[in-house]
Design goal:
about 400 residues; alpha+beta; Jelly Rolls; 2 domains; seven-stranded antiparallel β-sheet; five-stranded antiparallel β-sheet; globular
Length: about 400
Amino acid sequence: MKSEMNKKEKMVSAYNYDDISIEEKSIVLELLDLLKERKKLGVDLSIIIEEFKQKFKIEEIPQRPIENTLWDHYTKDVNLGQNIQGFKTITENDKKINIPVLCFSADIDTLNKFVAKILASKAWHLYKKVIWYIMQLVNNYYFFSSALSSEQCEKIINTGNKKIQELKNSGESTAAVTFGKTHKQGLSEKCDDVNSMDDKTLEEISKKTGKPSEEILKSSYIRDSEVCWLDDQWLYDLITPYVYEANKKANWRYDIDYGETFQFTKYGLNQFYGWHMDGGSDHYDKYKRAIPGITLKHNNSLYEKKYTENKNYIGKIRKLSVTINLTLPGEYEGGNLKFDYGPHFEGERFHECTQIRPQGSIIVFPSFQYHQVTPVTSGTRYSLVLWMLGPPFK
């Protein structure tokens, strides 16, 4: 009897090769021909690989090792059956690097024992590392370098400057404010001798002066710039697609559904915005309905903090902050966006984000992140800011 194994059968692949384009097929055929030709000549495989890289301009991107990471430290003795599913390519110091994407599986008993082992530990440093890993973000921000063209940036700058001039002509103030009146003009109304906090933290000033934080804030302002508000639809059409892309690619996947009015900001010499966060993350921080004539207004026509007449804001919090750098990097110095990740952060606590210095760059980050704009030491820095809203975190 003739064995069924002797029959020549068509190989069935798990991959759908019909999706490959004609161009891709031609490249594969060229590769196969080169491989056959070099094999006949007895060329070493490593030489063939280098030839392929040069001929087809293949960029070799280094991989970040898993070894010696926090994850590896706490899981190397646990049977998680993990493997690398792929890579996420990021840019660090203008160089690309592949970040491994891990997949793991373990029975619930193994996971329970692992968690119990961590919780049973009395060591503070272990507890701190685990809490940091669980609560902190893998991606503290996501950016798009030079996303907007020079023409688009100039259009926004012209629109903002025109609005600022119109406000001044009508006698309205364009000074940037804070709800606690810790901005320069607000503090000047209450105190004759005011000082700039520049890019210093309260801890640094307190250590230098010996004064408590409460006393420092009575005479030190944290904000000095000019602003106006823009709600042109073309701005939302231009910017919001980047926000949704960042929200997805950074893997935050926050529930966001509405954007506030854009804030156009002009920073001149020595102007800045000290340490602050744009919004909290709980129900205490959600917008509430303001009732005209009843809800208290300050003398700058602003309602009490978190009160609004805009029905689309009510019940929501700021979840993602967006900053667009509108100025060419050579036209100003200083004025960098800087983050404070806290004293218990495993890496460097303070991070100056130079990736968005190119004109038209966009950065997106969670609104609960502490950040500042350092003082401008020369020139003028223009920026556009947007806050995306959504329901409080559950």
